[in-house]
Amino acid sequence: MTPMPRRLVAALASSAAALTLAACGTTEVADPATGSGSDDGGAAAAISESCAADSTATSTDPVTLTDGVGRTVKLEKPARKVAVLEWQQTEDLLSLCVAPVAVADVEGFTTWDTAETLPEGTTDVGTRGEPNLDALAGADPDLIIVEVSSADDEVIAQLETLGVPVLATVGADAADPVGHMKELFTLIGDATGRSERADVVLGEFDEHVAAAKEEVASADLPTTDFVYFDGWVDGGTVSIRPFGKGALFSALGEELGLTAAWTGETDPQYGLGQTDIEGLTTVGEANLFYTGTDDPAGDYVAELEKNELYAKLPAVTENRAHAFPTGIWTFGGPRSAEQAIDAYVDAIAG
């Protein structure tokens, strides 16, 4: 199963009763301010080849930001030594060609988000839900980026005891998932003085979508309806998490001209539902896409394929059920979104 953003775990647990249907090549990272190699935080820096070729400017001007929950954050100069406590924001920082000095759950990020590569030796500050404050302080950041549910989230006050500016972000918005992804990326670009780079990356994303849309349009699909899902096995029972209209991966499919077909109830922030194998039969002729897994101890896909109901779904019998490669983070930034778009195209037009 794809692990959920830490705030989503509690949200889905509290809403489970209502839903009774319920992660490229690398090179030395450039220090954005100098263009030279950086070893902030003791990391042996390595990031994407895209950053090796990057020539965008880095601002040194003071920064005043309105963060994701409406707080004003003022920096005397753009942040250079950034600690990040959620994976999407970690990916975004790397896409901006800034190496973080500290990250929550390095192993998890490396496993589930392959869109960007963390510098080897990046300081690990514990879990996303409960970061180690001592380790955070030891990394000596000049900005901490955290994901929260509201402006009064207690984690903000806890982090502020370190005497470091805190940029509070919100992980998703089901009303406009792609727009929210872009806005969050832009916010982190502004905080680090990397706004020029942010514009380049978002421009590349838009070009990626446009090219992929043409490929999908030329494919001979019996239906444009689709459902993306992931799942897990618990006590021998397969649980399915369908991505509804407000989910990022559903929105990416719709950007390509597909039609999100899951109509069951979903949570209001991430657009995710909950069902079982029988619940999948409600999607009719829809194409199926799902998160691939390399976990032999919890291979929900293997269990699905043993099930007669699943085997009889039109998408399965007609070879229109496709696993995405492992390591595409379903709650990621522009680079993860590009990976997802490529996976859609490979499945549909490959």
Automatic annotation (TrEMBL):
CDD domains according to UniProt: FhuD
Leader peptide range in chain numbering: 1-22
Domain Fe/B12 periplasmic-binding: 81-350
Name of a matching Pfam family: Peripla_BP_2
Localisation: Cell envelope
Alphabetical list of InterPro entries matching this protein: ABC_transptr_periplasmic_BD, Bact_iron-sidero_bind
Keywords assigned by UniProt, alphabetized: Signal, Transport
Superkingdom of this protein's organism: Bacteria
SUPFAM superfamilies on file: Helical backbone' metal receptor
Family: Belongs to the bacterial solute-binding protein 8 family.
PANTHER family documented for this protein: IRON III DICITRATE-BINDING PERIPLASMIC PROTEIN (PTHR30532), IRON(3+)-HYDROXAMATE-BINDING PROTEIN FHUD (PTHR30532:SF1)
Protein name: Iron-siderophore ABC transporter substrate-binding protein
Protein source organism: Brachybacterium rhamnosum
